[in-house]
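A quick aside before the break. I want you to see a complete sequence-to-structure record at least once, exactly as it would be stored in a machine-readable document. Don't worry about memorizing anything.
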Amino acid sequence: MRRVKGRTRRGLSGLGLLLVIVGLIALAITYSVLPPTIYRLWPVLIIAVGVFGLLRRPDWVSELDIQLGPEFGRAADRPRRIFSWALIVAGLVFLVFSLGLVDQRIIGPVVLVALGVLLLWRRSR
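That is the input. The structure line, written in tokens, reads:
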């Protein structure tokens, strides 16, 4: 429990709820209750966690706004947003590969071409 201005804060724990859901899914997979197509959609969980991180603003950031001003709260909130976007992008990449939309053999050459284009673009500037 956290103390906020003399009150005891109670409510749902986002991390606790996420752990329960992931645990239930792991049990369902272990005992083969879920159809095999669900196994290919596991990256949707990563995307959902990223979206949840973008939409939810932790209480500690609001407390920083009150104590130190909104500029400090925004600066403290930035790493969480970057991490949330990284989770969403990683989940989308994993989803593309788990659904078989992209052949895994082309990822190496594509990365090499992308790095080459990046180096050429940086050199031309």
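Two observations worth writing down. The chain has six helices and two strands. The two ends are 54 Å apart (CA to CA). We'll return to this after the break.
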